[in-house]
């Protein structure tokens, strides 16, 4: 994101951030908290919404949870002591199944004896991944990326070793859930919130919009400074998630441009339509670059990493970059702007028609 693009967004809270274990009110009955992550993307934003239980007990709804590790549990305990005004948590809402969002859902639901609310698609995906040591890593993932031209030994070794990577951060998923569906109206405390399903980043991501407050909890679908990771993974090797993601972005355009966007990473901002336009242009620019490279000579996803990512990538970052590279190639393939090219070495490459 360029400085010029960022200047077109407004950050109403400036450089203010809630300290670890503390909360900060961003709208009436909406509180912001942050938890650490052991990655280059070192934080996740979580949200508290004033709510009322079915029996009329006042309390809070949690939106997203953080990963399951001792530091995050300790930070939540601090929030329980100082950030809830002495009220209980009455439900846990999870936008999608990625570890930083659902990791501690089992612990929070058990601690507060409350229900998990999530799309059934993402609940099932999380249950599968948490109990499968070969999900999102291991030999199948290694073979998938090798087919797409990856030869870097450090990255392949990392992938091979992390078959249980998801389960380390999500050791359990609640056995029961309340299903979220697209366009559903949830009464959370004094306000109605509408769910907006999004695809491409996760199986069935759910954002939450409150028209009365002018607030959108965007999850990972709309982020202010970075583009959302949209990857093809070995579990669905012919997928076209980037097309699904770009189609999903259009669903936010009917919302008011002065909506306060509460993203999972980065700071709350205003300028939803501008940011969507930036994200759409970002991917179209990458499409043009990929087609130009493939017109010169057939390219694999690994060949295209320097085209799509101008910075140096470590092994961890390369695993995500490879998935994004395949996603760009598949979108162009299904648009008819690229074609698969037969090779003798078994590597999948793409050229122009």
UniProtKB/TrEMBL annotation:
<dbReference type="InterPro" id="IPR036388">
    <property type="entry name" value="WH-like_DNA-bd_sf"/>
</dbReference>
<protein>
    <submittedName>
        <fullName>MBL fold metallo-hydrolase</fullName>
    </submittedName>
</protein>
<dbReference type="Pfam" id="PF00753">
    <property type="entry name" value="Lactamase_B"/>
</dbReference>
<dbReference type="InterPro" id="IPR001279">
    <property type="entry name" value="Metallo-B-lactamas"/>
</dbReference>
<dbReference type="InterPro" id="IPR048933">
    <property type="entry name" value="B_lactamase-like_C"/>
</dbReference>
<dbReference type="InterPro" id="IPR036866">
    <property type="entry name" value="RibonucZ/Hydroxyglut_hydro"/>
</dbReference>
<feature type="domain" description="Metallo-beta-lactamase">
    <location>
        <begin position="43"/>
        <end position="265"/>
    </location>
</feature>
<dbReference type="InterPro" id="IPR050662">
    <property type="entry name" value="Sec-metab_biosynth-thioest"/>
</dbReference>
<dbReference type="Pfam" id="PF21221">
    <property type="entry name" value="B_lactamase-like_C"/>
</dbReference>
